[in-house]
Please model this.
Amino acid sequence: MVRRNRLQLRISLILILVAAFFGAWYGLSHWQLQPDALQFTAPSEDSSWIDVFSNIGEAAIQLFMGLTSGQ
Model:
């Protein structure tokens, strides 16, 4: 069993937290979601679970493409 230095672990944790906060700040300041752009339809009794998951996947793909398009 290998025991790493505690100082090394603390520095790693601090760097991970700094990177997470920077990523959250960057995402919030550069990607603004518009609630009217999200379109979800309620599943009806005739829809199967495959249709529900494919609709959720399609919405996620469209959202990702909208976030990364740069417009």
In short: The chain has two domains: 1-30, 33-71.
